[in-house]
Amino acid sequence: MKKQILLAALLIAPWTGAQAFAEGDAMLDEARKVAMLLPPKLMATLQDEIGKTGFQGAIPVCKESAPKIAGAVSQETGWKIRRVSLKTRNETRATPDAWEKAVLEEFDKRAAAGEPPAKLEKGEKIGNEYRYAKALPVQSLCLGCHGKDEVTPAVKEVLSKTYPNDHAIGYVEGQIRGAISIRKAVP
Q: What dihedral angle (degrees, nearest 10) is formed by the CA atoms of 157, 58, 82, 133?
């Protein structure tokens, strides 16, 4: 009898694992697609505003428009979406939770070991949620407000008034600025 139970367990275990793996792959694929909806919308809005008012005039896009765009993507997809960073500009919206902080630190280590920041991602089921994070490398457009040498005195003045506790400056192109973090309840 014990041999029959053991045999049954061995036969069922691989199938259950394969099913969980397939479900995880489907969630990862969905998460990747959702995470990629925000950056092009945000970049287009930023480019438009930078063209009209310069970098200092575009600061409200990240402060006000980006959360609205993320909220619209959340409503469209059913995923909660936000941007997080270890070096926050907006502490109330971008401070990572424990999982996000660990993922961002892991991304930094992986990037330091040679992995391209644009390819860094992590997805996993935790309890009754699927969580996913995708690294956001600094693009050339970002340097006008986040750069090491490119930030003008006019931009610095607006940033100091808008974000008195700003830590999101001093980057070079390609560094990890933060991540898009998304989550969704799963059965």
A: -90
C-alpha to C-alpha distance for 187 and 97, rounded to whole angstroms: 22
At 24, is the pLDDT very low, low, confident or very high (cuts 50, 70, 90)? low
* Among 43, 31, 103, residue whose Cα is nearest residue 74: 31
- Condensed to tens digits (0 to 9), the pLDDT of residues 32-44 reads 999 999 999 989 9
**DSSP code, position 171:** B
Q: Give the angle 139-67-43 at the CA atoms, nearest 5°.
A: 30
Cβ atoms within 10 Å, residue 60: 14
CA dist., res. 53 & res. 57, Å (int):
5
DSSP state of 86: S
